[in-house]
Design goal:
The chain has 3 helices and 7 strands, in the order ββαβααββββ. It is of the alpha+beta class and about 200 residues long. It has a single domain, classed as 60s Ribosomal Protein L30, Chain: A, CATH 3.30.1330.110. Strands 1, 2, 3, 4, 5, 6 and 7 form a 7-stranded mixed β-sheet that branches. The radius of gyration is 17 Å and the shape is globular.
Length: about 200
């Protein structure tokens, strides 16, 4: 376990039952799990970001599992995923990159079973209450256009200046009423992360 200091974790589920007057059955569902953590390097330059990388590895599993549990599905039923981080004003963008990129993906993939495709990501600097957009893509096949999506998360009191807000999103479906063509989710093989 890392020495990570978590101030709070927020989990939410969004269900879309109707879109432009049409019923969505079953509803499309997206879950987000967001951790607000202390930034150990706030206010100073640190060459070695290993501590943040270790935190990312831990958060990938914790937040990924929370999303799957919130949706009430088995891991293999997850269809898309994404990750994002917002660093408070006393941090730097590279702190978000250290959490998101080197190690967060492997435990997230374990939480959703497989995950052959790259995990879409975004990072930004921000202050309390600012929205963080988490990009989404099909977990096994990047060419599944129906799953190009995103979920906005915000926490009214995060991130504070010396914090980082880390978000994982998982879905059990694509967008409501997809009709822009491309590979269908049920046709995806998930061997190369593309198709």
């Amino acid at each position: 376990m890392t020495r990570m200091k978590i101030r709070k974790i927020v989990t939410l589920v969004e269900e879309t039952h109707k879109e432009i007057g049409k019923d969505i059955s079953p509803p499309t569902r997206r879950a987000a799990a967001v951790a607000v953590i202390e930034n150990p390097f706030a206010g100073r330059y640190q060459e070695d970001l290993e501590d943040l990388m270790a935190m990312g590895e831990e958060l990938g599993g914790v937040l990924g599992r929370r999303c799957v549990e919130a949706l009430g599905i088995e891991p293999h039923q997850a269809e898309s995923y994404g990750k994002a981080a917002m660093v408070g004003e006393d941090g730097e963008l590279e702190h978000a990159a250290a959490i998101l990129h080197p190690r967060l993906g492997k435990p997230l993939r374990a939480a959703v079973e497989k995950g052959a495709a790259l995990v879409p990501s975004s990072k930004k600097m921000g202050s309390m209450g600012q929205p963080l957009d988490v990009p989404l893509g099909h977990k096994d096949a990047a060419y599944v256009r129906s799953h190009f999506d995103g979920m906005e998360v915000r926490i009214n009191d995060a991130p504070r200046a010396k914090e980082i807000m880390v978000a994982i999103c998982v879905t059990d479906s694509g967008r409501p009423l997809p009709r822009v063509g491309g590979l269908k989710a049920e046709e995806a093989e998930g061997k190369d992360g593309l198709r």
